[in-house]
Amino acid sequence: MPKSPFRHARSLGNVVARVDLRANLRNTLRHAHAADFAAALVVFFIAVPLSVGVAVATGTPVELGLVAGIVGGFLTGLLPGSSLRVTGPAAGLTLLVHETVREYGLKGLAVLVLATVLIQTATGLLRMGRWFRSVAVAVAKGVLLGIGLLLFVGQLYGLLDADAHGTAGLGAGLGADWAPGMTVDMGAGVDVNVVAGANTPAGGLEKLGGLVTMFILALTSPVAIATYTVVAGAAAAVALWPRWTAGARLVPAPLAAVALAAAGSYVLGLPVDRVRVGGLLDMVRPPGDDDFERLGELGTLGAVLAFALVASADSLFRGGVASRGQRPAVDRSLWPLHAAWLLVFATLLPWVLDFVPLAALAGVLAHAGWKSLPRNEPGPLWPDHRGDVAVLMATAAAVAVTNLFEGVVIGLLTAVVKTAWEGTQRRVRP
């Protein structure tokens, strides 16, 4: 008699039933030492610029980036599991979230994420993660290449912020649809300021084509000159800070870059747009019935599927990388501490972010996108695996030109065609 595919649900339920969040929290406080708090503080220093920067890149309010870091840190830190939980935001989801916010709004994003969680839970209970092992490595590398390229190019729009402090700069030249500093009515008496880069072109071709016009207009903008100064300082700090061993041990490179850019722009009085933070709870708006009804639309179902596929593939890819590395000997119960630091900061010191230039955050994310590009992959593969290189480049081009979901589909089809072609070229010797 075949075994039920839901037999794993019962075992998972038993594990969840044994989870005692209060006991884990008491264990955290009982075994915490000064070094543990200091280590969590370092993670917090990395989480702040990344949480705020990813919120800027996705076109969502900065407050929601902080809320996501706090909630995610507490929930994942209090649950038992593997050493793969604290990994930071996924670059692929950054692009998906940006497109989803443009199409469905913030409340629609919440519904899509909830549906994605349900799908991932179901696939986990059914042990369907092994299916991702059949995906060609070239497709995965191509997706990463396309994502990194779009993330890097997309942040160039954020680097050239304008219209800061009422100055008519680059935003005025590109039109009101792009200019940062706009205020959008989110309903219920809540107004959200649109940050630089939130209204950048959505498609890859639009982003690449708009760069020429953007740079030409930037040459005549006094605001752009100040922004270039901030960008150059932030990029240099991110790249060169790790070389200073003593400084890198105390302060992470992203935090150092943001802090130096903030201090320099404030002292010099540069007219650059800065982060604006309001009340955290004011930005948390639960979705309504109309938002849930959109789950029946074909486009919404495709977006949910894209979220589930990219998030699952990203988790498995990170798991494969981490399993080949050295696992840190840390107490997992201490990991919620960085979320606690983030909560304290967001509650008591949100005004500190008012000094941070948006261009500095965009520079940090652009550097992250550049570092994530698998630039050295095609060279070694070309002599003996030209078919894999073709699949990799086709997938990357499809992701950059169309969107992430269509790019993955095109990459998979290209891999199937490549495999079929190689099968027809094989000869069996008698």
Describe the structure.
The protein is an all-alpha fold and 430 residues long. The chain has one domain. The chain is built from 19 helices and two strands. The protein has a two-stranded antiparallel sheet with strand order 1-2. Helix 6 runs antiparallel to helix 16 and helix 9 crosses helix 16. The two termini are 44 Å apart. The N terminus is likely disordered.
Summarize the structure.
The protein has 430 residues and is mostly helical. It has helices spanning 7-17, 21-31, 34-58, 62-78, 91-125, 137-159, 170-174, 204-219, 222-240, 245-250, 253-268, 280-283, 289-293, 298-323, 337-348, 358-372, 378-381, 386-401, 404-424; strands at residues 183-185, 191-193. It has one domain (31-424).
Beta content: under 5%
Strand order of the largest sheet: 1-2
Compute the number of structural domains: 1
Helix amount: 55-70%
Uncertain regions: pLDDT < 50 for 5+ in a row? 1-19, 161-202, 320-333
Gap between N and C termini: 44 Å
What shape does the CA trace take? globular
**Would you tell me the structural class of the helices and strands?**
mainly alpha
- State the total count of DSSP E strands: 2
Radius of gyration (Å): 23 Å
Query: What pattern of helices and strands is seen along the backbone?
Result: HHHHHHHEEHHHHHHHHHHHH
Main sheet record: 2 strands, antiparallel
Mean pLDDT: 66
Provide a count of the helices.
Answer: 19
Membrane topology: Multi-pass membrane protein
Transmembrane segments: 37-57, 64-84, 104-126, 138-160, 215-241, 253-272, 298-317, 338-370, 390-417
Domain SLC26A/SulP transporter: 35-163
Protein name: SLC26A/SulP transporter domain-containing protein
